[in-house]
Design a protein that fits this description.
heterodimer, A: 702 residues, alpha+beta, Aldehyde Oxidoreductase, domain 4, 7-stranded mixed sheet, globular, B: 2 domains, 33% helix
Chain lengths: 702, 174
C-alpha cells in the first residue's frame, strides 16, 4: 500500500456517470432476467372505503395473450404479519382509493392494459372521509412519531410567557399533500427459479424489501434476492416495500414466468405513498430585543385507516432556537387516504416552512432584521435535551450567506421595491436536519494483484454513493481509486439499512472505514503489512448509532437566501437567484455534494410555488394525479443558485465526521421563498403552494 | 393487431412485429430492449423518453411505432460514436448535470434538439426578436427550451451550464 493525497473531499466525477448520460446503466426494468418478460397491469378501486360486491374477470381472461387475472378470489394466500397495505388481493375490503383489486398478467403491456378495462368490479361504499381540519373531533395523539420521536414536548409555561411577551406571533400555516414522484416509476421485475425468488426492483435499500418478501411468501433469507444497483430517484417513496413488489412476485409465481410490474405515473399517486398535509399553529413570544421567551408549535396531520405514519413535523422546532418556555404537539386524523410515507426530510420540510415563516413574521413585528433575529436566538446547548452540540454553525451559515447574497443594507419594509411590472423582495430561512448513523456491515476482499473488492448493500438513488463510497474505500485502504471495485445495491451483499434519513454515507462509509481498519490490522499482524498472494477477506460492521448520540446533539445546519419577483398584474412568481450555505460536517465529494444541496433546495422551491395534490372531497381521489397537473419545478423555474458550504469537523457523529446532506437542502427553503414573497408584495401566504390565484385572494380580488 | 415494421435505431436496423397500439418508446424498450430512452410518465409530460426522430426531438411515448417505419431514431446512447462520448455527454459529466440519471438520456437528446433548433434559427417563447436570423442561446433561452424535460433531482442549475458549454463551442451562444 502507498500513501497518497486524500480522495475524501475531492470532486471526483461520478463513476456511474458515463453510463448514465448515455442511458446504458441498467435500472430495474432494464436488467436482463434471462427469459422473455410478461407484464402486470392492475385494476384499482374507485372507492375509498367499502367492499367489493362483484368482481368478474371472465371477459379479461378470455382475451388473447392474457395469462392470468388475479383477484381476491384466486390470488395465492400471503403469510401473516405484513404491514398495512402489503397483503395484496387478500380481502374484498377496500381501505383507500387506488387499492389494487385485480391484476392482469399478459404477454405484452398493451394486452395487459387493455384487459384491465375488461374486468368488471362493483362496490358497496361509504362516503369518503378525506378532509383534514384542525377541529375534527377525532384527532388523536399517536404513541410516538416517525423515527421514534416523542409525540409532544412541553417545557415551562408557554401560555404565561406568551401573555407577557413584548412581541408575539400567532399564525396558522398549512402545507398540502405532496407526492414524491421520482422520474423512474416504481418498477419490480420478478423471476422464480423453483423456490428461489429474484426481484430486480427500484428501491432505496434491497435489505428493506427482502424481509417483507420472506414474510409474504414464507421464504428463508437465502431464498430471496433483491437487485437494485441503479435507481431513478426515490425521495422516500422507495424506502419501504409497497404493493408492487409483493404483486410482481405473486404474479410471477402464478404464471411461472418472469413478470414486470411497472407502475403508471397515475398509480404512483395512490400505491407508493405521499407526504401528509399539515395544519400548523405557531405562536412565538419575544422580549423587546427579539429574544424568544416562548415557542409553541402545534401540528395536525393525517394518516390512513390501515397504517399509522406520524410525521415528525415539529421536531426541528425542538432544536433550532433558544427559548425558556416551549411546546410542540402532534395530532393525527385517520382518513380514507392511501398510506402516507416518507418524503424528503419528513418533519423538517413542512415544519420549518411554518416555524421559519413565523420567525419572519416576528422579525417584522419586532422591527428586527430577520438574520439578526435568528442570530439573537442561537442556543448554546440543545434547548430541549439540554446537551451540548457536537457541532453547530448556523450563525456562520447565516453570516456567510448574507455576505454571498448581498443582504447588507436590505430595507425591512415589504412591498416597496419595483422593477417594471415586477415586485421584488428577498427572504431568509434557516435549515436543519439530524445527523444519524445506522448499523451496516461490510466485506472487503484484497486480491493478490492489489485490487480490492468492497461489498455493502448501500444504494445510489442519485446521491453519488457509487463514487463517494469508492473514495472512502480508497482512502481507508490507502490505494488509488481505480484499485477499488465497489459492489452495492444487492441484498446478497452484507447488510445495510438503505438510503434514508440522510444516513447512507455516514453509515456505509463508517462500516467501510472500520472494516478497512481491520484489514490493515490483519495484514500487519499476519502478513507483515503486505497483501498475500492469495488475498484476504475481512468482514466488519458499524453496530448502529454513534456512541456519543446520547450525550451530544447532532445536527447539520444551513441558511437560504432568495430573491423573488412577483408580477404585479398576474401574480406570477419568479426566483432569479438564491444563496444557500451549509455546515454539514465532512463533504466527501465536492461535485456530487453540490448537486445534492442544489437538488434539495430546488425541490423546496418547487414545494413553495408548485406542488399540491388536490383531493376531491366528494369523490375522494387526487384529481391532478399526473405530471401535467401535479406541477414540479421545471428548468425555467430555477434561477442562478449559489451553493456553498463551510468547513466543519465533527468528532462525534461518526468515523468520518459526515452529517448527511440528502435532505437538509429542502428544509427551510419553502419558508425562504414565502418570506421573500412577503417582502416583495406585503402579502403573507401561509398556505402552500404560493400560486398566482393566492396573490389575488390576498389582495381581496380573488 | 400485429404489424411488421422495421425500426432504424442508432445506426442499426431492426425488423420486428408490433401491436398497432405499441408506442415507439415501448417498441424500443420492451421489444428491442433498447433502454436508453426512459419511461417516466407515458403521457408526454416528463420528457424522459425524448429521442431524435430524423434529427428532431420527440417524446417517443407519444409516437406510435407503426408510424415511424422509415424514420431514423437516435437515442442518447446513439449520439456517442462507439466509445467516444458526444460533447453533450462530456458537458453533462463536467457540470454534474444529473443525479439519479433517469431523466438524463432524455435531457441529452433534448439538448441536442435545442442546439439543432438554434442552428436553424428557431425562436422560443423568451426570444426577444422573433425575426432575428441567429439565435443566441442565453441561459434564459436554455432554461425555457429545456423545460419540457423534468428532473426531479432538480439538476436544472447544472443542466443550463452544460448545454451552454456545447452551445458556445458550436457557435450558437455569444
Amino acid at each position: 500500500m502507498t500513501t497518497m493525497d486524500r480522495l475524501i473531499g475531492a470532486g471526483v466525477e461520478r463513476l456511474d456517470g458515463p453510463a448514465k448520460v448515455r442511458g446504458t446503466a441498467p435500472y430495474a426494468y432494464e436488467q436482463d432476467p434471462g427469459e422473455p418478460i410478461c407484464h402486470v397491469a392492475v385494476v384499482q378501486s374507485t372507492v375509498n372505503h367499502g367492499r367489493i360486491t362483484r368482481l368478474d374477470p371472465a371477459a379479461a381472461e378470455a382475451m388473447p395473450g392474457v395469462l392470468a387475472v388475479l383477484t381476491p378470489a384466486n390470488a395465492p394466500r400471503l403469510g401473516e404479519g405484513l404491514a398495512s397495505d402489503l397483503p395484496v388481493l387478500q380481502s374484498l375490503d377496500v381501505h383507500y382509493q387506488g387499492q389494487i383489486v385485480a391484476a392482469v398478467v399478459a404477454e405484452s403491456s398493451e394486452i395487459a392494459k387493455a384487459a384491465v378495462g375488461a374486468v368488471v368490479v362493483e362496490y358497496s361504499a361509504a362516503e369518503p372521509d378525506v378532509a383534514l381540519s384542525a377541529d375534527r373531533p377525532d384527532l388523536y395523539a399517536p404513541e410516538q412519531l416517525m423515527a421514534g420521536f416523542d409525540t409532544d414536548s412541553v417545557i415551562g409555561d408557554v401560555d404565561g410567557a406568551l401573555a407577557t411577551a413584548a412581541a408575539t406571533v400567532d399564525a396558522t400555516y398549512s402545507t398540502p399533500t405532496q407526492h414524491n414522484n421520482p422520474i423512474e416509476m416504481h418498477t419490480s421485475m420478478a423471476r422464480w427459479d423453483e423456490d428461489r425468488l429474484t426481484l430486480w426492483d427500484a428501491n432505496q435499500g434491497p435489505h428493506n424489501i427482502v424481509n417483507d418478501l420472506m414474510t409474504a411468501f414464507g421464504l428463508e433469507r437465502g431464498q430471496v434476492r433483491v437487485i437494485s444497483p441503479y435507481v431513478g430517484g426515490a425521495f422516500g417513496s422507495k424506502a419501504f416495500t409497497h404493493p408492487n413488489q409483493i404483486l410482481a412476485a405473486m404474479a410471477a409465481k402464478v404464471v411461472g414466468r418472469t413478470v414486470v410490474f411497472e407502475l403508471t405515473r397515475q398509480q404512483m399517486f395512490s400505491l407508493v405513498g405521499h407526504r401528509t398535509p399539515t395544519i400548523q399553529r405557531v405562536r412565538l413570544g419575544a422580549d423587546a430585543e427579539g429574544r424568544l421567551t416562548a415557542i409553541s408549535h402545534e401540528v395536525v396531520e393525517h394518516t390512513s385507516r390501515i397504517n399509522e405514519f406520524a410525521e415528525q413535523t415539529a421536531t426541528a422546532t425542538r432544536v433550532l432556537y433558544a427559548a425558556p418556555h416551549r411546546r410542540t404537539t402532534h395530532r393525527l386524523a385517520r382518513l380514507d387516504v392511501p398510506p402516507p410515507t416518507i418524503m424528503r426530510a419528513p418533519g423538517e420540510t413542512p415544519g420549518l416552512f411554518a416555524l421559519e415563516s413565523a420567525m419572519d413574521e416576528l422579525a417584522h413585528a419586532a422591527g428586527i432584521d430577520p438574520v439578526e433575529l435568528r442570530i439573537r436566538n442561537e442556543p448554546e446547548r440543545d434547548p430541549e435535551r439540554d446537551v451540548p452540540w457536537s457541532s453547530r454553525n448556523l450563525v456562520a451559515c447565516l453570516r456567510t450567506g448574507a455576505e454571498r447574497f448581498g443582504w447588507a443594507g436590505r430595507d425591512l419594509r415589504p412591498g416597496v421595491r419595483e422593477d417594471g411590472r415586477w415586485l421584488v423582495g428577498t427572504g431568509v430561512a434557516s435549515a436543519t436536519y439530524p445527523a444519524r448513523r445506522r448499523k451496516a456491515e461490510c466485506r472487503i476482499t484484497g486480491h493478490g494483484d492489489g485490487r480490492w473488492t468492497v461489498e455493502i448493500d448501500g444504494s445510489d438513488i442519485g446521491t453519488g454513493a457509487w463514487t463517494a463510497l469508492t473514495q472512502i474505500a480508497a482512502d481507508a485502504l490507502g490505494v488509488e481509486l481505480g484499485a477499488i471495485e465497489l459492489r452495492i445495491g444487492d441484498s446478497d451483499l452484507p447488510f445495510a439499512g438503505g438510503a434514508g434519513g440522510s444516513t447512507g454515507l455516514a453509515s456505509w462509509g463508517s462500516a467501510i472505514v472500520l472494516t478497512a481498519r481491520d484489514v490493515r490490522r490483519e495484514l500487519d499482524e499476519r502478513w507483515g503489512g503486505q497483501l498475500p498472494a492469495d488475498g484476504v477477506v475481512v468482514k466488519g460492521e458499524v453496530p448502529g448509532p454513534s456512541p456519543h448520540a446520547q450525550d451530544w446533539s447532532m445536527h447539520a445546519f444551513g441558511a437560504h437566501f432568495v430573491e423573488v419577483r412577483v408580477d404585479r398584474d398576474t401574480g406570477e412568481v419568479r426566483l432569479p437567484r438564491a444563496s444557500s450555505v451549509y455546515a454539514a460536517g465532512t463533504i466527501v465529494n465536492a461535485r456530487t455534494a453540490r448537486s445534492q444541496f442544489l437538488g434539495g433546495f430546488s425541490m423546496g422551491v418547487s414545494m413553495a410555488l408548485h406542488e399540491e395534490s388536490v383531493v376531491d372531497e366528494r369523490f375522494g381521489h387526487y384529481v391532478n394525479h399526473d405530471l401535467a397537473e401535479y406541477h414540479v419545478a421545471t428548468n425555467a423555474d430555477i434561477g442562478d443558485i449559489d451553493i456553498h458550504w463551510l468547513e466543519e469537523h465533527d468528532a462525534y457523529v461518526n468515523e468520518l465526521g459526515i452529517k448527511g446532506i440528502g435532505e437538509i437542502g429542502i428544509t427551510g427553503a419553502a419558508a425562504a421563498v414565502a418570506n421573500a414573497y412577503w417582502h416583495a408584495t406585503g402579502l403573507r401566504v401561509r398556505d402552500l403552494p404560493i400560486t398566482p390565484d393566492k396573490y389575488f385572494r390576498e389582495l381581496g380580488l380573488g | 393487431m400485429d404489424t411488421e415494421i422495421t425500426l432504424r435505431v442508432d445506426g442499426g436496423t431492426h425488423p420486428l412485429t408490433v401491436d398497432t397500439r405499441t408506442t415507439l418508446l415501448d417498441a424500443l424498450r420492451e421489444r428491442l430492449r433498447i433502454t436508453s430512452p426512459k419511461k417516466g410518465c407515458d403521457h408526454g409530460q416528463c420528457g424522459a423518453c425524448t429521442v431524435l426522430l430524423d434529427g428532431r426531438r420527440v417524446n417517443s411515448c407519444l409516437v406510435l411505432a407503426v408510424t415511424v417505419d422509415d424514420a431514423e431514431v437516435t437515442t442518447s446512447d446513439g449520439l456517442a460514436e462507439g466509445d467516444r462520448e458526444h460533447p453533450l455527454h462530456r458537458a453533462f459529466l463536467d457540470n454534474d448535470a444529473f443525479q439519479c440519471g433517469y431523466c438524463t438520456p432524455g435531457q441529452v437528446c433534448s439538448a441536442a434538439g435545442v442546439l439543432a433548433e438554434a442552428r436553424a434559427g428557431w425562436p422560443s417563447t423568451v426570444t426577444d426578436d422573433l425575426t432575428a436570423a441567429d439565435v443566441d442561446l442565453t441561459d434564459d433561452e436554455i432554461r425555457d427550451r429545456m423545460s419540457g424535460n423534468l428532473c426531479r433531482c432538480a439538476a436544472y442549475a447544472h443542466i443550463v451550464p452544460a448545454v451552454a458549454a456545447v452551445a458556445e463551442a458550436e457557435g450558437v451562444r455569444r
